[in-house]
């Protein structure tokens, strides 16, 4: 019998998945079926009760050759962050970005020097914000902190204790804060995920956040349809029409311009689709239509959804704030943020991430780059 070369790593690598939503359920189940020890944490008991009763998550992956379906046993299920982190090596944070600050506060007293903490994904500025809150809480542990550019799965919880993975992305950039430690993160993660690749820096992963392209703008431009049908249409394949895609491409150019201002090459969303899903098209509309992973993913049933509640304050607002500091115009991003705030009657500008909350207000481009690469801003 041929020995599995990763078996020793699997027996030693202990994962704590923090978050039991669509993504956390998928990640916990998949890691378990890969042979890893998995703890599942959630801040409330409600989402854990059915899993705790059965001890397993049912993972469905029809048509996927690289994902095993079946009952995934979860070693520990808890609402206590200390218990969750106690014997874990790698904490995979899989919650909406507006939950990052809360988890930083919950984790801070229990983190050790050898812990690796990965935000899946960081959205825009996630690692910088998480680091800021750890320090505010007095955490002195030399934690290895990182963020991914996007979430590795396209997945949905189908019923209590059951999750379906529609696709696994081919290529997911990850970056450590500071960036010179990215190789350490990759070495730890790639025992489970060969898809993770070096992401340059957390600036690059944050500005490569394509959720701002595919989430709030699409939902905003389909608002009437969502309210009329309660989301009875495919979010990507039907919600992104040629005219909608045109607006999204203009927003995408603003995102890429932010990277240019920082001297960081940022791929367009159309290029990202090709790398993530092998989906090609002459423009964004045709690239989306050529993405099989989007088949069957329905639109949200209402507008009070994380596609707006998370992605406007945690993705759009920080990019707009960064643009203001760097002198980069973001009129389409700003319009989407203002209209979404008006539609939902919420002031996303007052709760969103800004250069102040990320700890980079007033820094020059050189100082920002040095902070993310080396861990300290240095001289102007």
Low-confidence runs (pLDDT<50, min 5 residues)? 1-6
Q: At CATH's second level, what is the architecture of the largest domain?
A: 3-Layer(aba) Sandwich
CATH class category label of the largest domain: Alpha Beta
Strand order of the largest sheet: 5-2-1-6-7-8-11-12
| Average of pLDDT | 93
Number of structurally distinct domains: 2
Given helix and strand content, the structural type is alpha/beta
User: What is the distance, rounded to the nearest whole angstrom, between the alpha carbons of the first and last residues?
Assistant: 60 Å
What kind of sheet is the major sheet? Answer: 8 strands, mixed
CATH fold-level assignment of the largest domain:
Rossmann fold
What is the gist of this entry?
By secondary structure, this protein is an alpha/beta fold. The longest helix has 20 residues, at 242-261. The chain is built from 19 helices and twelve strands.
Comma- or semicolon-separated keywords:
380 residues; four-stranded mixed sheet
Task: Show the helix and strand layout.
Elements: H1 7-12, E1 14-18, H2 22-33, E2 37-41, H3 49-54, E3 56-60, E4 70-73, E5 76-78, H4 81-85, E6 90-93, H5 100-107, E7 116-119, H6 126-136, E8 144-148, E9 153-159, E10 162-168, E11 172-177, H7 182-189, E12 196-198, H8 202-207, H9 211-214, H10 216-221, H11 223-229, H12 242-261, H13 269-277, H14 284-289, H15 306-309, H16 311-326, H17 331-344, H18 348-351, H19 365-374
Parallel strand pairs: 1-2, 1-6, 2-5, 3-10, 6-7, 7-8, 11-12
Antiparallel strand pairs: 3-4, 8-11, 9-10
Helix pairs in contact: 5-6, 16-17
